[in-house]
Design goal:
Strand order of the largest sheet: 1-2-5-8-7-6
Largest sheet: 6 strands, antiparallel, barrel
Shape: globular
Number of helices: 0
CATH topology: Thrombin, subunit H
CATH class: Mainly Beta
């Protein structure tokens, strides 16, 4: 089975940019294939604060992820901030991206 066969969930990635006059613009990347593991864990975010996670999400290694993005899950009316993300590497290459959201 390929890694793509394990990506059975979809999310929308949201990037919010603030203009010179404090106007907010949303850029959406819809229907991104992923695998969601609902897992609570006390962890530190990128600014060093302890937060409780809601889920760990796996993406393809080619998906662009940064800490300014928000994750909108199917069936939810709000966006979840990214706590931290990583790119695990096996002996050959970067295999996938792991994102923790609160």
């Amino acid at each position: 089975m390929s890694y793509d066969g394990l990506l059975i969930d979809t999310v929308t990635l949201v990037t919010i940019t603030v203009g010179k006059r404090n106007e907010k613009t949303e850029a959406l990347i819809a229907n991104v294939k992923c695998r969601i593991m609902r897992k609570t864990k006390l962890m530190k975010n990128m600014s060093g604060e302890e937060v409780l996670s809601f889920a760990k999400i796996f993406f393809k290694r080619t998906q662009t992820i940064n800490n300014q993005m928000l994750v909108r899950m199917v069936g939810e009316d709000y966006d979840r901030p990214i706590i931290t993300y990583s790119q695990p590497e096996d002996s050959v290459q970067i295999h996938h991206k792991e994102v923790w959201v609160s």
